[in-house]
Amino acid sequence: MVRILLWLIALLFFGTYRIPGPSVLPENRSDPVPGDGDAYIAPAFGEDSSCMQSVGEACFPVFVVSFPDTAYRSNMVGKEELEEWLFTGEDSVSAYYDTASYGRLHLDGDVWFYEAQQEIASYENDYGFEELVMEVLTYYDEEIDFSTYDRNGDHIMDSLVISVPSGGDVDFWWGCQATWYQNPEFCVDGISVRHYIINDEQPYEREREVYQATVEHELGHCMGLPDYYKYNSKDWEGFHGIAGMERMDDSEGDFSQFSKLMLGWLTRDQVQVMDPDAQSASFLLPPAHEGGCAVIFPQGGQSRFDGEYFLLEYNTPDGNNEGLFSDEDAGVRIFHVDARIERDYDGEPYYRYENFSSYYNSSDEGIRILKLINDGEGFYQTGDTVRYGEASDFGWYTTAGSLKDPELSIRIGAVTEEGITIEVIRE
Length: 427
What we know:
single chain; alpha+beta; five-stranded mixed β-sheet; 15% helix
């Protein structure tokens, strides 16, 4: 618990306050109704964003940095083994993303080692992250062709990881994604830095799982996903229980279908949309590890994935969720989404109701980008019915951020060989 609290404090310290600019809804987020065959739904943050690409190939360096007064223990893993953890192994970070994205995103990269010029405390200031990154990149400038780490050709490094040993200020060296802003003119081989990662987890064999989990979570930030957990509450989890496992919440399990929708990993045929004016609809949800979900918009509302809706998915202990719960516990989870997008005055997109947004209620009450319906009660299963007043967060938002009756119910039907049946009735 102490580590969790320190994590939240560090996130607040390194967070970027966003100055809101004009509200902009990207053109490629409109008209989500299926009809283009296997055409993929475009990522929420497109090519006009500096975020790491979520589709295709991405490549980044990992620099394992030690300091004159702070070093790793002798039993740390070597270059080949760490590259296996990250890029080449069957259970690597790259393999995780291959599975999560249904083959839409492949990660590659290299591991390098470096000893910093100064003691670790010298970097523990407001400019320390960028000072250290510039020092490392400048040192390797003649040896490394950094254009290798720009696979989409936007002249921005796809990502970058600085791995640091234990021993410095634990309130400063914390696993986080940072955004480059103090030295905008700095570049190497014509490549600048935008989104990069600090990893304070240690490269020792017994800590492999948490080391990988931190990189997997922070790469989600590099692609534009926010944290789904709460920053300002004692109850920090955004979602609870076995139905609440999500890579951007407690950094466990797979990405939700909402995250995959935002990252461009689902086809139009995989996202079943209920007509906003229909009085009823039936769906067959395949297991999430195969791809797919159902989306319900407010009646008569605008059918856009960058708006408010319910998202339903069917989770089984397969793929990246293997071993996390039993077959008997498998079932449906429903998210209440408000994915409206804004842009700051630099033109960068962000979610209106992510934790660092000026629109967000910092008490953690009110509208959030993602809420789990019936939070903490497990997955919905055959025979369950979801109704207003009986399930937490099941309602449409009012302008004040409270909930009103959605005037519909969701019935969970039978499990078949292809998935699970769902019936939605507007009341």
